[in-house]
Amino acid sequence: MPAFQTLKRYAAGMVIPACLMTAAVFLPVSANAQDSQSIIRDTEVEAFLKTNTRPVLDAAGLDPDRVHYLLIASDELNAFATTGLRIGINTGTIMEADNPNQLFGVIAHETGHLSGGHMMRTDEIERAARAPMAISLGLGIVAALAGAPDAGLGIAASSSTFGTLGALHYMQTEESAADVAGVKAMEKAGMSAKGLVDFFYKFRNVETFSNAERYQFFITHPLSRERIQATTRLAQSQPHYNTPDNPETVKEFDIVKAKLSGFLDDPLKTYQKYPETDTSYPARYARVIATYKRGQWDQAISQLDKLIAEQPENPYLWELKGQIYFETGRAALAVPAHLKSVELMPQAPLLQLNLGQALIAVGDKDSLNAAVAHLQQSIKYEEDDSFAWQQLAQAYDALNQPGLARLSTAEAQFYAGDYMAARTSAVWSQKYLDIKSPEYRRARDIVMTSSSEMGIDPVDRETQRRRKN
Questions:
Q1: Which is higher by pLDDT, 318 or 21?
Q2: Contact by Cβ (8 Å): 151, 2
Q3: How much of the chain, in percent, has pLDDT values that exceed 70?
Q4: Which of 68, 201, 373, 375 has the most Cβ atoms closer than 10 angstroms to its Cβ?
């Protein structure tokens, strides 16, 4: 059995160190991705999206480095734009796309919403975007994994978080404006807008005659015949309309789809999609993951080692190997695999986080100190990742550094939007921190900012009383 079947969380959604824990809630991990729509993180999938959509984002007048993707583990067809320069994409949208151009067309449309200022602004989306990334980011997928009750991967956001998305609608005028902006952005980026047109035509009739909930995109993005025709005419008038996808991009896209199938589909479905007769890299990759999900861990490692022998410089394969070892309670074996992935891709925050988690699980002093270093690197690249702060708090707690443990917990709670808990943890951290240290000043900043967010007096009366005494 894997080491982590449940996710220990604070009531507000935070993992807290033992020195702060008075009670914990154990939340079982769902075994069916169809029953829950969860935010997932994956370095490989995110890198594919960020790298290949940079030209489109830039053409749309957006800073590619400031745009963030939210991957939603759902087979529903949907995408949305929201505040904070976030683009949400359901995994179903990726899986249903016939080629990368269709996916990029949908993203280009969403950039039109961003640049046009007509984003979906909902408290649910904002809370989900701040939610802590749950346990075990090794392979990257953090979701309710279909057919894998023992995979031990936590849920970052529940289905209730996204249950209201179907009730949100863009106005027809906003949709038309986003279509025009998307087509122009694709053209300016030197890419064909044909994918957006094909996407509309491919699913318009399906949406009309089949389960509407399956195609939320057309509920939140109402279509009309006139709108489709106008978009088609505009796209066909562009010089790059018949420009094909880059072959390398197509290969990467096939790998992404195989990976998502491996994790989110039932293993038997994955085997049907990618039978043994298919000896391509994406197919073998998907089968390794499906084999792992079926609990055949050693067989999965054996298959994976063959892929690594062919591609020893592929960080995602080493990441997967570390994932399997970590999730099956073999942290000491996970560490060298995760370390190799970090060496190959040192600026990937999730890979640094994976390694930090594994080192914490090993638990000796040297490993804990190394975990702190790698978690700090992860936070350097993604300061607002509350789960990384949680893990750092755990490492500091194990090293008997209560001040830094409480401060890291405060950071985690602050970035998750739990300002009351963040304020309390920051106040407690000050009891252990040198008043002249930068850590103490940071704790004070959290107290002040959290208090301001809650509209209360930032001065802690109990702290004042202790200082006077």
A1: 318
A2: yes
A3: 73
A4: 375
Are the C-beta atoms of 348 and 43 separated by less than 8 Å? yes
Burial class (CB in 10 A: 0-12, 13-18, 19+), 411: buried
Length of the chain: 469
Calculate the alpha carbon distances from 119 to 186, 307, 393 in Å.
Answer: 20, 42, 35
Number of separate helices (H) and strands (E) present in the chain = 22, 6
Instruction: Name, of 137-141, 203-207, 364-368, 464-468, the range with top average pLDDT.
Output: 364-368
Sequence-ordered alpha helix ranges (H) in 117-193: 123-130, 159-162, 172-188
- pLDDT tens digits for range 168-190: 445 667 788 899 999 999 999 99
38 confidence band (pLDDT: 50, 70, 90)? confident
> Cβ neighbours of residue 161 under 8 Å, at least 6 residues apart?
37, 124, 125, 127, 128, 131
List b or e across 253-279, with b for residues whose CB sees 16 or more CB atoms inside 10 angstroms: bbbbbbbbbbbbbbbeebbebbeeeee
Q: Could you report the per-residue pLDDT of 345-400, keeping only the tens digit for each? A: 999 999 999 999 999 999 999 999 999 999 999 999 999 999 999 999 999 999 99
Q: What angle do CA 222, 227, 229 make, to 5 degrees?
A: 140
Domain boundaries, the chain: 31-247
301 three-state secondary structure: helix
What phi and psi values does residue 86 have, to the nearest 5 degrees? -110, 140
3-state secondary structure of 330: coil
Exposure letters 197-230 (e unless 16+ CB within 10 A, then b): bbbbebbeeebeeeeeebbbbbbbbebeeebeee
Up-side HSE of residue 359: CA atoms within 13 Å toward CB?
Answer: 26
Residue 81 in 3-state DSSP?
strand
DSSP type of residue 18: T
pLDDT given for residue 344 in this prediction: 99
Residues 276-288 have a mean pLDDT of 98
From the list 291, 265, 317, the residue with the least C-alpha distance to 94 is: 265
The pLDDT assigned to 76 comes to 84
Tokens of 153: 């991967």
Q: Which residues pair with 26 in a beta bridge?
A: 8
For all residues of the chain together, what is the average pLDDT?
81
Identify the DSSP state of 135.
Answer: S
Give me the helices (H) in 140-246, please. 159-162, 172-188, 194-209, 217-220, 225-236
For residue 112, what pLDDT is reported? 92
By the 8 A CB rule, do 101 and 245 touch? Answer: yes
Q: At what angle do helices 419-430 and 438-454 cross, to 10 degrees?
A: 150
Stated pTM of the model: 0.81
